[in-house]
Amino acid sequence: MLAGDWRRPRKGQIPEVPAEPGLVAEDPDSGFCGAVVGCDKTGVTLEDRFGKRRVFPLTKSGFLIDGKPVTLVRPAPPDAASRGRARSASGSIAVQGLRARVAKESRIYVEGVHDAELVEKIWGHDLRVEGVVVEYLEGVDDLPPIVEEFGPDTDRRLGVLVDHLVDGSKESRIAARVSSPHVLITGHPFIDIWEAVKPASVGIRAWPRVPRGIPWKEGVIAELGWGDNTGAAWKRILASVNSYADLEPALLGRVEELIDFVTVP
């Protein structure tokens, strides 16, 4: 990037990337980083992990993705053929008559059964197309020995989705103990996967703030008046999710990143 003026690249040097929903990009001038939540002829809207949104113009070489300069462009409208194709819950074109591939050795691990059910509901079709299995860990406290037991290598990659992966958290300290180049640990900022579902989709104004010392899920359903059964509450939340549009961009980008990582040839 430091070789020459990357703001004035040679023709073909900087790739053009469609600003699809969930794509994570960074504005190098301000340092603002977020997922794409909208794009029109005037600019692209990014939303960061705290829910703050900013609009940026679609300038040449105007963004960074994974630290590399790109030019974001408006996604192409669907052609006549693709308009008639069914879409999966993740927004991808559904493969008709799909027969799941034999599972790859690579895996995606998530923290709990709720995480696994949500990933299956939105990305299940895509994962079966790619032959990727999702397993849940029941927490990440023992992640380093679990990774060692898995034995990741070039053809056996591991992606891990972690809840509440923010600076200074217990989860971030555990993740820092894993350094294999064949493992990608990423995550969302929410305390629990429940919060990754947009409140409007569930029919609430916002997820309640639960005081420290109170179990988060129990505190949430108490504040919402949903009784005392967290299992029933989760079924209610999951039933409200129909597509990627019901999920926060901070989760969408991370799951797509993990799927890309474990399916690289």
UniProtKB/TrEMBL annotation:
Stretch list, region Disordered? 1-23
Q: Which Pfam family, any one, appears in the UniProt record?
A: DUF3097_C
Q: What is this protein called?
A: DUF3097 domain-containing protein
Instruction: Give all residue intervals belonging to the DUF3097 domain.
Output: 16-75, 106-263
